[in-house]
Amino acid sequence: MTTPSQSASAVKTSTQITAKALTRKVLLINGVNLNLLGKREPEIYGHTTLIDIEKRLIARAAINGIELICIQSNHEGKLVDDIQHYGLLAESAAQVDAIIINPAAFTHTSVALRDALLATQKPFIEVHLSNVHARESFRHHSYLSDIAVGVICGLGHMGYDMALGYWLENIYAIKTSD
Question: Is 86 a catalytic residue?
Answer without folding.
Answer: no
